[in-house]
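wait is this the right file?? whatever heres the structure
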């Protein structure tokens, strides 16, 4: 039996599926306007971890994670990079997929793009207006929060004008400060679609309500995302979905609410050399994807991760020790085996640090247990180990490095980065030292 912390009830609960023959899980995905940083990666690795454990336990699991490809940040980035919205979102979607692959995250089973659901979002808004749960003002459509009495049930938060002892200035078109945008007008330079309220685009919160309901049907088992999404994003999703379907409780939408903790950059040295935002590829000069994966999983998903060079170095050294032990057992297939100590640790609210410690103890005492090894591999080795070291010849690596250097000399840094990512996928890390490129496996 799995136990999972439910952010809605604020306690660890036994996970009882709505239908044990088909588990349904939705987690908020990226807005594709920039490379994902290590803090974003934490949310994706937590969702991936949960989906892997569920897939180890149940015969059928559908894990959905959306792609936000229309948003104000995307519009700004497309101006900045002088790319069309379509080209910009395609570019960053591809980078996202490559980056998550480098740290062993499997793609979700269904990855709906917001712009493919505009028609459905318009129909959803029309229904909310018909039910008098939304209203239009000058091309804006707003959700009327006062109609949903459980607003604030997840986060405990609600914006109240009087709350902080001062009046919050309410945008003139809002009936109430808590009301949020379902549809907003676009000018002729901005992307938009024709709607009953004029040319415009949907609000961000709406897409998750619409796409989760279409892809999974409601209620579904688990809704996830980063802690920062509890308010207002998930609170607004709950209000929309419940209001549109005549439901009272968040559990009528999703039974369990799963949120991961933050990642704190605690290392001044690291933020000095890499900047305050650390991208996955920045780490791959010094570390392999599976070191970064282990570092991310070395803290239980709900706790804040104190991210530092020390943490990465520790993960690298642990990973090396475990991997050299596992080399002897390459024939053991990666598989989630129930009733192992590692599986039990994971079933207890995904206690990855405990699972790692169990594996370290086995290594320490040189104890080979095929079931523990299979389960460890299944969770911690990730999925993209498609090129094994045995298949790589030195010539191939050196050819790729030469190609990368040629690309760098020609100023084609995008290609150079791509080649570096390819090498990293082959478990080869490279370092540029004094005009030369050193590499190691
Ligand atoms: Zn969402």
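ok assuming it is, sequence goes like this
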């Amino acid at each position: 039996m799995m136990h999972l912390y439910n952010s809605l009830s604020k306690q660890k609960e036994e996970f009882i599926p709505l239908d044990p023959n088909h588990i349904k899980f939705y987690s908020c995905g990226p807005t594709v306007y920039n490379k994902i940083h290590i803090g974003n990666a934490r949310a994706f690795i937590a969702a991936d971890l949960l989906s892997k454990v569920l897939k180890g336990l149940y015969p059928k699991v559908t894990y959905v994670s959306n792609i936000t490809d229309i948003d104000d940040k995307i519009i700004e980035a497309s101006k900045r990079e002088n790319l069309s919205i379509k080209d910009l979102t395609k570019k960053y979607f591809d980078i996202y997929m490559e980056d998550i692959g480098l740290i062993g995250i499997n793609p979700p089973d269904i990855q709906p793009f917001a712009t493919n659901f505009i028609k459905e979002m318009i129909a959803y808004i029309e229904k909310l207006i018909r039910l008098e749960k939304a209203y239009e003002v000058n091309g804006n459509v707003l959700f009327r929060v006062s109609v949903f009495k459980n607003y604030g049930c997840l986060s405990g938060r609600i914006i109240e004008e009087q709350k902080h002892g001062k009046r919050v200035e309410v945008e003139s078109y809002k009936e109430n400060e808590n009301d949020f945008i379902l549809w907003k007008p676009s000018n002729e330079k901005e992307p938009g679609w024709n709607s009953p309220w004029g040319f415009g685009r949907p609000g961000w919160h709406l897409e998750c309500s619409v796409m989760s309901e279409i892809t999974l049907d409601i209620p579904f088992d688990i809704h996830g995302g980063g802690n920062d999404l509890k308010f207002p994003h998930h609170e607004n999703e709950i209000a929309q979905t419940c209001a549109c379907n005549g439901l009272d409780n968040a559990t009528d939408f999703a039974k369990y609410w799963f949120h991961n903790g933050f990642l704190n950059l605690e290392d001044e040295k690291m933020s000095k050399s890499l900047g305050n935002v650390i991208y996955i590829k920045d780490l791959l000069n010094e570390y392999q994807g599976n070191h970064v994966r282990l570092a991310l999983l070395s803290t239980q998903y709900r706790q804040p991760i104190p991210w530092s060079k020390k943490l990465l170095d520790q993960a690298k050294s642990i990973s090396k020790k475990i991997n050299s032990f596992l080399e002897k057992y390459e024939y053991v297939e990666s598989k989630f085996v129930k009733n192992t100590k590692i599986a039990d640790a994971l079933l207890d609210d995904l206690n990855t640090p405990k699972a790692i410690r169990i594996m370290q103890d086995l290594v320490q005492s040189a104890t080979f247990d095929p079931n523990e090894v299979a389960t460890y591999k299944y969770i911690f080795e990730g999925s993209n180990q498609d090129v094994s070291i045995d298949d790589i010849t030195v010539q191939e690596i050196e050819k790729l490095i030469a190609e990368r250097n040629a690309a760098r000399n020609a100023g084609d840094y995008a290609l150079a980065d791509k080649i570096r990512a390819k090498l990293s996928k082959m478990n080869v890390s490279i370092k540029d030292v004094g005009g030369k490129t050193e590499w190691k496996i």
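The first strand starts at residue 3 and ends at 6. so i think its the right one actually
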